Write the structure tokens for this entry.
Amino acid sequence: MELSQHAAIYPIVTLLFVAVLIPVITLRKKNWDMPLAGLALLASLVLSAILVPQVRAAGYLSYHLGSWEPPFGIEIRIDFLGALMMVLISAICLIVIVYSRRYVAPARSEGEKTFFFHFEEMEESKRPVYYSLFLVISASMLGFVASGDIFNMFVFLELKAICSYALVAIPGTRLPVRAAIKYMLMAVPAAMLVLLAIGLLYSVTGTLNLADLAERPASSDYAQIINISYVILIVGFAVKAAVFPVHIWLPDAHSKAPSPVSALLSALVVKMGLFGIIRVSYSAYGTHFHSDASFVVNIVMWAAAIAIVYGAIMAIRQREFKLMMAYGTVMNIGYIVLGFALIDETALLGSMYHVMVHALAKACFFLCAGLIISRSGYQTIDDLKGASRKMPLTCAAFALASLAIVGIPPTSGFISKWYLISGCLNTGNIFMGAIILAGSVMAAVYCFRVVYYMFFLPPSNGLWQEVSGEGPASMVVPTWILAAATLALGFVSSWVLPPLRDAIASLPLGA
Amino acid sequence: MIALLDNLNYAVAMILFCIGFYTVIMRSNLIKKIVGLTIMQVAVFFFLVSIGYLADGEAPTVIPGAPPPPMVNPLPQAMILTAIVISVSTTALFLSLALKFYEHHGTVDMDKAKEDKR
């Protein structure tokens, strides 16, 4: 038996294993929770990075859980898209967990009282739980993107969802609990819709394997049932992904959660719903979906266009900066869904690239917000006037990430929007291209307003005087790594884009 | 009508699902909402299990030598077992959140809690 035989599941299994260990070990060694979690995530980052060249060479990596052959057993199937997402997920989780070490730690001295604004009321006993949940949510996201079986996708989706409800509510104070309840009331019925659709699909195709499904729907006689199951599945995933009309849980859940959790939710967790939509549309329903169900895709496209405009307007109107960032997520989800709904290779390329850009930039936004909140306790945009005098590094990281969100040329945001707009032009949707451009302008309004306040306005009376300066290095450095990554992703795009293009070309798209 | 009777399991599952959904949307009491969610989940489980059912079917075991009997499909049952585990943990988490909600607001009624602006 060779160890490398099981390479495909190591990143997932490592995290789950350590997640179980943490509550046990911290009974004796209180301070081991974060180092253990960090090491586990580092290991899974290395293990998933090893997979990338293998996947690139072989096309995809197939692993049979329990040695059951694919159409009958559960298959782990990692294609290039999945491998890239695995690296992205484990990298961002690692960065965020390093950041959250000081964020969730108790105050070290009297002077630090205000430092841990959000976690004042969080008992120390919750800390191992926090790290444990964090690892399980990372593992479930890795499992979700690696899964080659539609029911397995559902299981990981729900594992991820349960962890995210718990992480939103973990401070135990009034607003996070309310936000988590609102989140659950929308996401649990959505999960049941997904399961119902899987049942419908299984009842007419008799298989759950994604690759197997790709061949079966087209030859099946039950076209109507397959179309209905597709619609139900899309609605279910759309709630999880917060696509426009069903986004209403997102702003509350993402702004009331502790900042590292917000970063994780906004950067990665909502992307899983989107990844599900893309995976299922292209792999499971294959070429079938856009011939018969093209009206669904049309509706999705318009919903995405409304999401861009609505998200931007709401972001401009907000007074709290975390709420503004949350509405910014609604808007960027619009971009990604639009790129998918255009059914064009270039647009899909832009959309997948935007998943990465937005993950890095929005995580950076929320980490900046966490730094500002934990140092000063200020929550509104007006309070940010003159922030750069006390926290220049944080403000600069925010400015850099907002360049990517707006899409200014040297940053990665420009590249994703370039491909999205070329996709619009390819398919003749000039109007959608105009919406993307208008969205960029509105993004500039809400991002650069904050940057302007931070750098060019004096503080309002009395604010920022008690703030002593930058946060600890273990919080500033992760924020800066993300900010630099949004810029760097623009420069290494010539290295990322061609394999991504190949991966997308291998999806059954045209026909 | 006959078609409906033949597919009674689907109709019952859909009606149950709608009852659950109605409860989630229309009731302001958090506990009733949770009950509604559970009804929805049970409806879906019922639907999935009934897919694999076969009249006079037996457990899917093959006895060497004998011709295989008509079997019940075991896969939906295995799926539902997994889904029940998920459903139980979701409900447990939701109930604990409802308890927290009660601690903060002194009520589990969401409409009454809305007036409580602190």
User: Anything to note?
Assistant: The domain at 2-113 of chain B is CATH 1.10.287.3510 (Helix Hairpins). The helical segments of chain B are 2-6, 8-26, 30-51, 74-105, 110-115.
